Amino acid sequence: MRDSDTWSRILDLNDYERGEMITVSVRACADETTTEYRDGIDGVAREITLPNRLTVPDTANLTASPEYMPHEDGVRDTFVTLQEFIRDGVTLSMSDTGENYYRGKYQIAAAVFDEREADDVSVMPAGDAPSEEDAGGYWNSGAVATLKGKAAETAMTGDFADSTYTLENIDPAYAGKWLKIALRSVSDSNISSWWSDEDDTTENTVNYQWIRIPRIRVEEPKITEGAASVYYDLTSGNCTLESVPEYVPAVQTELDFKLQSYSDGYRIQRIRKAKESNTDELNAYRYDADWIYLEDDNNGGYNIFCSTSADTPLDIQSDGEEPVCREDETAVFVQNIQAGDTAVLPVKEETVQNILDKPVSTQMILSWTPKEEEKEAYFRLILPDAETIMDYADEANLFTSQASVQAVILGDDPEQERLAGYESSEISSWYRYKPTQIEQATEVTTLYDYSDAVEVQSGVSIEASVWKDTAYKLTEKTADGYSIYQVKILDSDQERVLDLRNLSAYYDISSETNILALKDAVYAQYAGKWISFREARVTEANGGNISRWSDWTVPIVLPKLIVESPEVTETTAQAEYILHRTQGDDVPKQFDARQYSWLCERGIHDKIEGYQIQIGQGEDSFYAEIKRDEDNIWYYTSPTGEQIAVTDTLTLLQTESTVQEGAETYTLSAEVILNLTQTENGWQFTVTVPVQEISVKEENNRLSFTFECNMILEPIPVNDNYETN
Question: What domain of life does the native source organism fall in (predicted)?
């Protein structure tokens, strides 16, 4: 190679031993195209002793920054942001081992692999793998990508004492994968070392350093607020985003967010506005929540799942063959959505006004707007909050307290492929608040993560409840406020899950107590089964959010559901009975009677649907059933099946006792009477029956009449899952 007036040639001296003497001479050679000149004579010979090679670097001394850290729930700084990764890359650092006494640099070769290989000390073929895909045996054979080949002779900055090099423009798709790095020492005045994987096996040097590319946090799907027009057909309850003249128009709050690269889907959380207890037994509030999950279907779209902690279940029909939500076992498949689709979600609210005497139920809607020339793809989340209905505005129709969106990485195994390379994004949180008593305002903020999981308090208890429609009551003393519980029912061997759902608890501020009502309709059937639960806290700071779930509690057995028999009081009284004679008139007289009384009180006896009253014993016993309806109106069902409303006094039975005295027959006719009296907290029942023995003086005779009218009372539970004692 000629440079100005200087000629040079690079010689490969690898075939010579270090320290060997070589002779070098130069002679001029004639141009092959000329006939006027011939080669010159040999030049003056110069003897050169070959220097030793530089020492092969110890790859173990190569480190990287930022360092890879595995995912750990609730732990920060185990990742870099996407912007940081693109801006800063991965910086490699190498320190001198003390064996290179010369001035020089390190050269690196780096390739990306899916998995780390075992350490190797064997001799590898020199150079880089050919471009053919089937070429094997080279240091970078089978690599996902070669970032710096050996042929590139990429030198680190610095010297043998301290060198650095920043790998830039690494594709974020390689996050969590492995860098396979080979090294060699180079110098202007000494022969370069072998590459760390090409030196003799007697050197026993490890060929490569394996460095894991740091995990990347997906970018936040920032919410922007707008408004959407939705049109409702009051007859069918259907809705559309297209204007239909005969439909009722509503303007609803819209939250938009862009699709984010490298995410597996999106978690949308919605906290409804505070709800006041509608029971007489409780003066407290709670927050219901809804969850919407979008999970990548590996076919260009997303599967939509929904879950709620509200009392009213989501109206979703399932045949058991739908996709299963990976994030939440309680979530139910709604539908698949592709770019350009719109999905009406099973989350609805009923507005406070009627249109044409029909209530308007507003819906939550999700629409996917595909990418256009200058606009990125984005989702439109239309909340059920009606800012106006037919131009009518009412604050009561603003149903959402807070809504948030997070781009998520699915999985819970830190070594799982996706979670090994990426972290779920920060949370974009929209919330509604009142800066003044009459003014409504909204704001969007960024939450770094969900707040830490709470510890379930040791004072938590579960007991059978006396409340109407409630099987069990869970109470927890806590000063931290509103909670949502995930409740799991297990069979007797604690292996099979019988029921799993989210439920919001009421929070009584005065007693600092969470109160969770487990309803009869669901939980009464599980008496004697095992129950476990975990808890998440609804926080009100920064616009509000929901914490991470706590650990599951140790399962305990649900107590039996027992309806206690009422306490019956027996007293004496007077009653008017009729004495019949075969000769003479009927004579009404006052006689001794027995009265059985008991109370049925609201909030104490709500598990009692009614009573079975037995008069007498044995085959001749008389039975009467008294039951109440949902409006607490009591009814008696007669032997003929007729339902008779009990308002005050009702004759249940007419009974007689007959005595023969000579030629005269005497019959004493008595009544069994039920009396119902309204009390301050419920009702008092009184049953009046004749005493067992009634003595009547008739002329010179004393007649003795016998009545078998003892009363036995059995409560009738609200359903068959309750036992009576």
Answer: Bacteria
